[in-house]
Amino acid sequence: MKDGDRRESRMRCSPGIRLALFMAVFALAVQLRDRVYAMHIAEGILPGAWAGLWYGVAAVFVAAGLYVMSRELRRDRSRGPQMALMGALIFIFSLLPIPVPISGTCSHPCGTPMASVVIGPAVSALMGGIALLFQALFFAHGGITTWGANVVSMAVVGSFAGFFVYRLSRRLGANTFLAAFFAGFVGDLCVYLVTALQLALGVPTAAGVLSRWGTVFVAFLPTQLPLAVLEGVVTGGVVAAIAGRRPEMLAEAVPVFARRGRGN
Amino acid sequence: MEKRTAFIVSLVTVLVVAAASVALAFSLRDRAKVTEEEAGEEAAWSGMDESVVETFAAEHGREARGPVLPLEEGDILLFLFCLGGFLAGVVVGYLWRRILGESPGKEEVGAA
């Protein structure tokens, strides 16, 4: 192949570069706001004992994620970029305030259900934890004291709920898009169900825990239900695109100790 | 034909779930407003942390504190969001291209 042809061939590959530029500009554009709205549990909301408990739970899953990640990388080095891609997607998704006209407020998708389908829930939980740490440190998004609680709700529950809903849907005969749609939809709602529980447990009121849990979760729903649909559609689209090009990527995703080959 | 049926089933399912979700969201929106009353006009387009989480916590004696690093002064946070969004966007675009590349159909057309 002549040099000119090679150059022309590289030019034909430019959609990848265009995609990189588009995503960069898109990410830049959506962040260009005169004020930043965070959606995780903010610094100081939870009392010390509850914050410590959630840190402990999060630590178990982060350690499991580290174990699975190192095992996967020893087995196949090419999994590294896939984990990095999903980590970056979680970071962007969970930092993206989307206005919902029904309630007049903003909230964000989670990204962890999608990541768990591709890289497995344990590594997805770890990636979510890293994204949340960056957001708490450098973006005033969430908090250091509430990092454990945010990891448990968004990273751990979002990942495991999404992963198991995806596997269950596939087993029940749903195609890849539909199974991933349900994973994103249910995973997103599960995140807010657990966030509501964390608030109900950590912020004592005269009402019982169940009553507080219901009150907070119902208050989330007008904003979060439409976003759960959006998260489902995006998850379905991304997972279906991956399944169309690299179906083996989905088969390699394992929870922690399970067998491979049943994910695509 | 089978692919077409799967597409139609997926589309109908997504539309049904979306319609049910939006209807439920509409029916519950007054419940969300209850926690916004004290925030007043400032609550418009605020994040759910302010409109629900912080309002609920403040009503019961738990106030949110500022971030650990003093990032909310001037446009520092705006700069960080722009930078973070840009870098993450570049990473996603680059890795997507590296891992998934062109679709098989396009490669065949290019080769021909």
| Major beta sheet summary of chain A | 2 strands, antiparallel
Structural class of chain A: mainly alpha
Rounded to the nearest angstrom, the radius of gyration of chain B is 23 Å
Largest sheet of chain B: none
Oligomer category: heterodimer
Number of β-strand runs of chain B = 0
Reading the helices and strands of chain A in chain order gives: HHHHEEHHHHHH
The largest contact between protein chains, plus residue counts on each side, is: A-B, 92 and 71 residues
> Helix- and strand-based class of chain B?
mainly alpha
Strand tally of chain A, please?
2
Summarize this, please?
The complex is a heterodimer of chains A (264) and B (112). Chain A is an all-alpha fold and 264 residues long. Chain A is 72% helix and 2% strand.
Descriptors:
heterodimer; A: 264 residues; mainly alpha; two-stranded antiparallel sheet; 2 strands; globular; B: 112 residues; 4 helices
Structure description:
The complex is a heterodimer of chains A (264) and B (112). With 264 residues, chain A is mostly helical. Chain A has ten helices and two strands; from the N terminus they run ααααββαααααα. In chain A, strands 1-2 form a two-stranded antiparallel sheet. In chain A, a hairpin with a 4-residue loop joins β1 and β2. Chain A is globular and about 55 Å long. Chain B has 112 residues and is mainly α. The longest helix of chain B has 33 residues. Chain B is built from four helices and no strands. At the A-B interface, α2, α4, β2, α6 and α8 of A face α1, α2 and α3 of B.
